[in-house]
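FAQ: What does a multi-protein file look like?

Like this. Sequence, then tokens, then the next protein.
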Amino acid sequence: MDSENKQRSEEDKNLNERVDKEIKDREEALKDLQNRMDSQNDDRNKEMDELRTRMMKENAFLKSLAGKPLSVYFDAYRTKAYDGGGEENLTFNGVSCNVGGGLDPESGVFIAPIGGAYIFIFHVATHDNKKALLSIRHNGEEVASIFDQNHKDNHKNSMAGTTILLSLKKGDEVVVYAYTGTWLADFPMNHYTHWVGLLLKPSEEAIQEFRDSAEEGNFEEVPAN
């Protein structure tokens, strides 16, 4: 009898140990599962926060772009003949448009408000019995020229012009420079002289600047004149 009780007690002990071990293993498995679920939830929450932040930045970027002009462009003209003798920047009497405010017609200087690829177009009418020698200068360096000579036996005005593409950085200067002896024909209603500039595509640096400004909440407006 004592032997049977001892055996039964041993079996009960072994059973209790197995049950305790099974309970402990299941508790550890449940705890591990809970930890994995918590980690996955944390990852999902982090992803949602990152997605929310990206969307807010994109919205701010689009909002900043909406407050800017679609491009930068100008068209300047003269209303009277040029006989200033040359060796100076050509100036202009008016502008039909100046979006971005880059051109100062009184000084003739265009300062790029946005970096990117620009096209510039310039054309003039030569004065009777005079020559026209002008250049387009980028930051003081000559990048294109116009030359036309109205000979004595011609006694007619002629048109001359040029077109050039330039890659500009923000703050770069572009001017039309008149050399010695340049004369140009212009009248109030004719506007023979035209100086045109147009931003074709902003540079990657300009786009990144827009994005950085939007993310910082600094919406710098480019004036639309």
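And here is the next protein:
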Amino acid sequence: MSASEFANAVCTRVDRNTLTTNCFSACGSKFPLCVNYAARPSNESLKEGDGNYYYQGCAYTKMKTCVSEVGPNACELQCLQAKNEKNEEWIMDVAPPQADRAETSLFLYVDKLKLPPSLRHLKIVGTTELTRKVPLAFASDAFASGSGLQNMTILDVSVESINNNIFPTNLTRLVIQRTQLKVFEPLGNRRLPELRSLDLSENSLEAIPPVVFELESLKELHLQHNSIKDAYLTSSQVSFLRKLDVLDLKVSDDPAENCETALNVTPVIAQLRHPQLLSVLGLMWEDMHTMSVVSEFMNRGTLEEFLLAPDNGLTWRNFKKKAAHDITYDPSMRPSAQYVTAMLQHLP
């Protein structure tokens, strides 16, 4: 549909498809939301191999919510949430526009939005084919104006990193799943003080994000199915995690990876020194899922306890026990535990 009536609005063609609330009077709702489509990629390399996937706009669909020729720069806008009068929940599907799906649009960048105070839940969901995830970036403070926003959900797009605080302070639940997220560090003055539930599962995180330990109101944390292999935590961080009502930190479901982890741990266990542990013999499967370390262990107590057991009679046996104790615990004479054990086996 033509928008010559909006020609007085100064619309600027963007470098990449942008979700914005600056709709240049083309979308008539009180709280407009639209996608400003780019005419061409800012970097031609972005266009290679995608068959012009991201730069088709919406006019070809002939949907009523697509407004073309906006202003002197002939912008092409797709109006979203046009019939959502209550504005309590916005759900946006990210995929090429379709005539029969008014809320499906293809944006690559989220501008700083002016959100209605009635909005409680904002959801962005990638609905493209499984082999393609739309790359998505955010302006600083993109959702910060959402004074009533409590829940945010971002699914099945490619985000990779969040390194500034794009969220409002009043957010209580945040879900970012299957986005290839590697970095979650929303820096800034607002550190999500009201957040109670954080779900970053099924991403590419390699460690627990440090910001997690600054979330004072957090009660639920979901980090399962990431790339977290080792978690080096301080005592205060461990204490923080223990206080959570829900903690899902499953590291891996890959049996081969779990076996590799067990084999890597074995040399470390073999270096352990304990008065009752003589040697590590190997590993043994208890069942399909449980592997145990097999060790030679003194089940009657430590060697020192045995050597110093009450038995004060002046006998050859006690003399050898006293000699074995002195040899074992004299720093200048430190034989192997097996040697001392063999010596004790010959006690009369």
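Q: Is there any per-entry metadata?
A: Some entries carry free-text notes. For the entry above: Confidence is low (pLDDT under 50) at residues 1-8.
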